[in-house]
Specification:
- This protein is mostly helical and 120 residues long.
- Helices cover 92% and strands 0% of the residues.
- It has two helices and no strands.
- It is elongated and about 140 Å long.
- The mean pLDDT is 90.
């Protein structure tokens, strides 16, 4: 009887060891699956990122020409305006200086309008 109990206990211990091994293998399997899923997700994210980068580069390249054209047009217009301003300056500078000097030199002493109103 004691031998049978001992053997039953031994069988239970072996079954418990086997169960522990199975549980450990299941944990390792789960951990490995999580690692694999994480690696797969990272790989998919990188691929998606590359695709979107390529799309953006293509979009940028297709619209760069129109931006360059607009910049050239703005630069041309700016140059024309600067030329016009320069020409207007050269044409009118003598007249402006004469008018300024005439106004500065012309002095008419008279009472301020508020003082004139106060006297009436």
């Amino acid at each position: 009887q004691a031998a049978q109990q001992s053997q039953s206990i031994q069988t239970l211990l072996e079954a418990e060891k086997d169960a522990a091994k199975v549980v450990q293998q299941a944990r390792q399997y789960r951990v490995q699956k999580l690692k694999d899923a994480r690696a797969q997700a990272t790989k998919e994210i990188e691929e998606y990122k590359k695709v979107k980068e390529a799309e953006f580069k293509a979009f940028e390249a297709s619209h760069a020409g129109s931006t360059q054209n607009a910049q050239v047009a703005v630069d041309k217009e700016t140059a024309v305006k600067l030329q016009e301003i320069g020409e207007a300056y050269l044409k009118n500078k003598d007249q402006v200086v004469k008018k300024l000097l005439a106004r500065v030199v012309l002095v008419k002493p008279e009472l301020h309008r508020n003082l004139i109103k106060a006297e009436r």
